Amino acid sequence: KQLQKDLEEVKELLTKATRKRVRDVLMTEKHKLELEIKNQPPPKPKDVTEEEKSLGGYTVKINNYGWDQSDKFVKIYISLNGVQKLPSENVQVNFTERSFDLLVKNLNGKNYTMTFNNLMKPISVEGSSRKIKTDMVLVMCRKKREEKWDCLTQVEKESKEKEKASYDTSDPSEGLMNLLKKMYAEGDDEIKRTINKAWVESREKQFKGDIPMDI
């Protein structure tokens, strides 16, 4: 999770970087993070609890999903291969005004769960439902008010506001500088050489009057 957050931050900074050397450094770090994430070992299967035994097989927590919205609904898309072959009663969704949880039982010998708490805005329990499609479960949350949701949950909203505040500094290069310092401190020899080279060349240009910013 931490590597993924670092990657997202580097991508965000890439959209703001204008100097070629800074972008080169950020691209190097982006490729490095993507490689680390790709090479991570798969998580170890957790111990089977009594509840899981009663359901039969392992219970897997679903983390990947997509979402969209219309004026009336927030739609959450969960990919599950072969889910359309299950009996309808094996796919259960329980709604409250600010949450829902999904349970898919006995899909290829496993059970799958997903829980969303603290939804961004209230939903109508009676108007919400789920649909089973080919290799996908679609959860339809009926909005109580027909208004746009900026995020799916309150936690996502707070996280975005926190990230926005960290970039909102009086010095627009401060966010980049902080990342470069972090990359230098934690990076390998290749990263350090790249950053050093960019810094030395930028200093030389500054002394020549080419650029005003000290990076």
Automatic annotation (TrEMBL):
Coiled coil: none annotated. GO terms for cellular component: cytoplasm; nucleus. Residues 44-53 have a biased composition (Basic and acidic residues). Residues 138-215 form the SGS domain. Keywords: Acetylation, Cytoplasm, Nucleus, Phosphoprotein, Ubl conjugation pathway. The keyword Ion transport does not apply. Residues 60-153 form the CS domain. It holds the Pfam family CS. InterPro entries: CacyBP_N, Calcyclin-binding_UBL-bridge, CS_CacyBP, CS_dom, HSP20-like_chaperone, SGS_dom, Siah-Interact_N. Signal peptide: none annotated. Residues 33-53 are annotated as: Disordered. It is found in: Cytoplasm; Nucleus. Gene3D superfamilies: 2.60.40.790, UVR domain. It comes from the Eukaryota. GO terms for biological process: heart development. GO terms for molecular function: S100 protein binding; tubulin binding; ubiquitin protein ligase binding. The keyword Cytoplasm applies. May be involved in calcium-dependent ubiquitination and subsequent proteasomal degradation of target proteins. Probably serves as a molecular bridge in ubiquitin E3 complexes. Participates in the ubiquitin-mediated degradation of beta-catenin (CTNNB1). This is Calcyclin-binding protein. It comes from Dryobates pubescens.
